[in-house]
Structures are given as C-alpha cells and as structure tokens.
Amino acid sequence: MRTGTWGSVNTFFMELEQRVGLCESVTTAKSLGIRRSDGRGLQEYETFTLGINEMDPVTVANAYAAIAARGTYCAPMAITRITDRSGKATTYRPKCRQALDPGIADATAEVLTGVLTKGTMRGVGGIGRDAAGKTGTTDDYAAAWFAGFTPDLAAAVSIGDPRGAQKHKLIGVTIGGRYYGAVAGATLPGPIWKDTMIGALKGVPPTSFTPVDSARFEGCSQDCRPAPRSAYGAVSTR
C-alpha cells in the first residue's frame, strides 16, 4: 500500500481496485463527493482508479478534506455568512456526514504522508507540519495535479492549458519564463500547493494526524482483505 502509493504505480492501483472491487471503489468515491466537473455521470470502468473522470479542484480538495477530518464529509460552501445593511447576520452551517470509517481515514492519511517524504513529492518536501497528498499526471502530460491536506486544511492544484489540455500538452512549454520539458504533478502543482499551504497556515498551530490503529491495519500480506466493518465502503486513492 505504501510503496505503490508513494511511487504512483498505476499497475498497483489497478490490482488494488481488483481486490477491493470496482463497485466498492466507485461507491466510496461518491461518498466523498466525487463527481464529474461537466455534470455527466461518472465513468465506472476498470480504469476508474487511474483518474479517467474529469474533476475540478474544489471537488478533489473537498474529498481529501474528508480524509483529513477522519472521514467526515462536508459539502463545499461558497458563502458561510451574510450580513445585511442593518447589521443583521445570517450564518450558514455546513452539511456534514460520516463518509468513511475514521480508522480507514487515519490509515489513508498515514499512507499519503509518505508521498511528501519518500514518494513522488520528496524532491519538493513537506511544509513543516503533518501533511499528506498525492501527485497526478494525465496521459501524455495533458494536465498535472497535486492535492493534499493537513489535519486543518486541504487544497488541490491543477495545471493545464486553457486552450484545451488534450490539444496543448504540457510538453516543451515555457511557464513563468521557465522552460519545462514536461510538467508532472510534482513539477509545478506540488510546489504551488506547498507555498500556498505554508502561507495559508501561517500562524495556525500545527496539529497531528490521528495515529493508525496498528492492530487493525498492520501486518497484512496478500489476500487478507478484512471483512467490511461498516457500511462506509472501501478506500481507493486517485
């Protein structure tokens, strides 16, 4: 689980999805608010876990926020408070629900922390506090992503050519006066995410992820998927 995720190994995620089950993977993704940005239904095919559905950064960041919140999913909100001209304020509360078993969310966060220290983001590094995330690079470098979170905040960065990502790949491009042979998840999205998170969390005391329940999740080898403990579904990372 750790090394396959850290190295962003596509064949590992395909094998993981095969063992977990496609339907279970899709169900869990939907419970985390995953939906296509064009409004169409999710493509529920064997390559689902490799990221075949068009996403927007808010949707992806919010799904990661649910993992950071130990499985509690809260629908995105554009407005949290309105004050009228007479000074009367109306506050809007988020609509939240438990989407993942807290222990599964903790284990997922623990695996994703290694991406920043031992995986595809190790060259960029962490942000000086507990953090986790995942790089993403589409076929032929059409787009590049990094999404990540701390226990306090989640964010996602997506880079692509606004003229059309499939026609204008991120290969041999000059961005901000610098030439890139190819742009992957850790090339630009990762550093942008890192700088943004450091700035956004300035002055916020660091908090730690909840430790993994080692009695439940450690020591498993092949073909030892545990029986489902709840109706929250299984976990599959993008």
What CATH architecture label applies?
3-Layer(aba) Sandwich
Tell me the major beta sheet.
3 strands, antiparallel
**Gap between N and C termini:** 13 Å
CATH class: Alpha Beta
Count helical runs: 7
Mean of residue pLDDT values: 92
Secondary-structure-derived class: alpha+beta
Counting structural domains, the number is 1
Work out the radius of gyration: 18 Å
The poorly predicted ranges are: 231-238
How much strand? 15-25%
Order of helices and strands: HHHHEEEEHEEEEEHH
Task: Say which CATH homologous superfamily is assigned.
Answer: DD-peptidase/beta-lactamase superfamily
Helix content: 25-40%
Strand count: 9
Label the overall shape. globular
The CATH topology label is Beta-lactamase
As laid out across the biggest beta sheet, the strand order is 5-6-7
Keywords:
single chain; 238 residues; alpha+beta; Beta-lactamase; three-stranded antiparallel sheet; two-stranded antiparallel ribbon; 7 helices; 18% strand; globular; disordered C terminus; PCN-bd_Tpept; transferase; Beta-lactam/transpept-like; glycosyltransferase; Glycosyltr_51/Transpeptidase
Walkthrough of the structure:
- With 238 residues, this protein is of the alpha+beta class.
- It has a single domain, classed as 3-Layer(aba) Sandwich (Beta-lactamase), CATH 3.40.710.10.
- The chain is 29% helix and 18% strand.
- The protein has seven helices and nine strands, in the order H-H-H-H-E-E-E-E-H-E-E-E-E-E-H-H.
- The strands form four sheets. A three-stranded antiparallel beta sheet has the order 5-6-7, sandwiched between helices. Strands 1-4 form a two-stranded antiparallel sheet. Strands 2-3 form a two-stranded antiparallel ribbon.
- Strand 5 and strand 6 (143-149) form a beta hairpin.
- The chain starts with a helix and ends in a 21-residue tail after the last helix.
- Residues 231-238 have low confidence and may be disordered.
- It comes from Microtetraspora glauca.
- Keywords: Glycosyltransferase, Transferase.
- Residues 8-162 form the Penicillin-binding protein transpeptidase domain.
- This is Penicillin-binding transpeptidase domain-containing protein.
- Pfam families: Transpeptidase.
